[in-house]
Amino acid sequence: MGNSVAYLMLAIWPVVCLVLFRTQKVERALIWSILGGYLFLPPLTEVNLPFVPAFDKASIPNLSVLLIVLFAVKQKLRLWPESRIAQWLVVGLVLSAIPTVLTNGDPISFQVLRGAYPILFEVGQLPGQSVRDIGSVLIAQVLMIVPFLLARHLLASEDGLREILLALMVGALIYSVPSLIEIRLSPQINVWVYGFFQHSFEQMIRAGGFRPIVFLPHALWLALFVCTGLMAAAAFLRHSTHENRHKIVAVVCYLAVLLVLCKSLASLAYGIVLTPIVLLAPLRWQIRIAALFALVAVTYPMLRSFHLIPLDAILAQAEAISAERAQSLGYRFNNEEQLLARAAEKPLFGWGGWGRSLMRHPETGAILTIPDGRWIIIFGTLGWFGYIFEFGLLALPLFLMWIYIRRDRNVVLSPFVAPLCLILGITMMDMLLNATLTPFIWLTAGAILGYAERRMPRPHKALKFGLSDAGVMAQNPKADGKRTVM
After folding, report:
1. CA 121, CA 483: separation in Å to the nearest integer?
2. Is 109 helix (H, G, I), strand (E, B) or coil?
3. When you count CB atoms within 10 A of the terminal residue's CB, does the N or C end of the chain come out lower?
4. 414 belongs to a structural domain
5. 486 vs 457: CA distance, rounded Å
6. CA-based radius of gyration for the chain
7. How far apart, in whole angstroms, are the C-alpha atoms of residue 33 and residue 69?
8. How far apart are CA 351 and CA 101, in angstroms?
């Protein structure tokens, strides 16, 4: 999907990544290779080759930075996590697709009953998965976590964490220009540049105006990105000097106004609640709140399966705010109930790809349910195994940070790690509503994991945290070697 410009952008992005690594320090090059691809490459456009996953705006930057870092960076890389728990989660996430493929070899047929007798006519079919699909799925899983593994090693220093927050703030400022254009003129930039509109135009109309989408999958993605940019700006404001404080105040106010104009109730609520926390709350409390968000996200499917989530009360609260939003939320809950029933038929390993996990009309094959949250997508596709490994790997950095501050009450934390924990935690919460897992979130999670690993206790205590003896490093926040690119 897309015009020649769309495919040209995908083709030249590896060159853009190489230029970044040759002209910028490694931390900044890695961040902007991933974030730039997410923000500016065309959505939905992909290059399909046999026996490999589709190459798109997520996989192309991930593969590009992996090859550049492996072959062009003059530094010994340690991509493998030091935490034993993280090692198991990485292996499990990559390999969890194998039993899914092996248990979904049967095609799904759609049949029509005709005549007075029970005569069935097959009118369509979803193919089953075979052994030859395993290689493609494994490559896709590995490419997905490339930002996580690279950031764990390259962005775990205070400078790396600062660069992530700076990229979020600067990226939101850059994206504000096309966003304001779309708010005024309607979402058309992707059509002007890449020749197509990537979603339902009706969903971009809200409150008598337009919601911006630019080059992202949905307006909700853009609003969440602006929210994280606002939180990053708030973190810089909290630790700014007197000389530049007025500039950061202006940025915070500007992004706050932009967030309101994005017309996303969830992201606006995140911004209203979390921005003051970033500005005023102790760093330790920010980490505790982020860990609580992660705990809710990880346990949510279990609570939904046992009907322990008060859906009626949540809908009543939404109704008090907006009848339209309550209706939308009720539609999501209804879809989730049907998809949970479908997932319960194959709870361990899921239904696999190609939309096999969706509820469909038994005769026509038309899709009857639309999954919104990342949790229900991964739960239906890869089952409990895939869900636990993916959400567990995202949540682990936050849990390790919580353990770290709990065991050492006098610890000195980087001023940048706590806001990033909040950003990761609130994104995991948003993944219960939307499929907002992006390569940049994997990158953020990897950087936090690396920071936690570097500061864990000495070997006799480290094993309690799932760390190997060889993986424990001295608690020196500034122990960060200089890196060069060939």
Report:
1. 65
2. strand
3. C
4. yes
5. 35
6. 23
7. 12
8. 8
- Residues of 112-142 as b/e, b for ≥16 C-beta within 10 angstroms? eeeeeeeeeeeeeebeebeeebbebbbbbbb
| Apex 247 CA angle, 241 and 249, nearest 5 | 90
For residue 265, tell me if it sits in a domain. Answer: no
Q: d(Cα 292, Cα 275) in Å, to the nearest integer? A: 17
**Cα separation, 467 vs 449, whole angstroms:** 12
Q: How open is the CA angle 256-259-260, to the nearest 5 degrees?
A: 90
Question: Whole-angstrom Cα distance, residue 42 to residue 74?
Answer: 32
- Per the domain annotation, does 211 fall within a domain? no
| One-character DSSP codes across 36-51 | HHHHHSPSS--B--TT
Q: What are phi and psi of 458, to 5 degrees?
A: -65, 170
What the block records as the tokens of 385 is 């195994």
Q: b/e per residue, 93-106, with b = 16+ CB within 10 A?
A: bbebbebbbebbee
Are the C-beta atoms of residues 56 and 37 closer than 8 Å to each other? no
Residue 385 has phi, psi (to 5 degrees) of -60, -50
10 belongs to a structural domain: yes
Residue 351 near residue 380 (C-beta atoms within 8 A): yes
Give the angle 481-166-21 at the CA atoms, nearest 5°: 50
Q: Give the three-class secondary structure for 262.
A: coil
Name the band, by pLDDT with cuts 50, 70 and 90, for residue 459: very low
Residue corresponding to tokens 């493998």: 80
The angle, 0 to 180 degrees and rounded to 10, between the axes of the packed helices 417-430 and 219-238 is 160
Does pLDDT of 307 surpass 80?
A: no
The two structure tokens encoding residue 110:
């759609």
Residue 448 is part of which domain span?
4-98+133-157+283-305+375-471
Nearest 5°: phi and psi at 324? -65, -45
Of 351, 337, 354, nearest in space to 379 by CA: 351
Burial class (CB in 10 A: 0-12, 13-18, 19+), 170: middle
Which amino acid is present at 452? A
Tokens of 209: 């105006």
Could you tell me how far CA 35 lies from the centroid of its own chain? Answer: 12
- Are the C-beta atoms of 404 and 475 separated by less than 8 Å? no
Each residue's pLDDT tens digit, 329-375: 788 888 888 888 888 889 899 998 878 888 877 766 677 788 888 99
HEC profile for 340-397? HHHHCCCCCCCCCCCCCCCCECCCCCCECCCCCCHHHHHHHHHHHHHHHHHHHHHHHH
CB contact at 8 A, 5 and 191: no
Task: Say what the pLDDT of residue 354 is.
Answer: 78
Q: Which of 125-129, 153-157, 291-295 comes out lowest in average pLDDT?
A: 125-129
**Overall number of domains in the chain:** 1
Residues 6+ apart with CB under 8 A from 433: 266, 332, 372, 373
The two tokens of residue 309 are 């989530």
- What global pTM score does this model have? 0.89
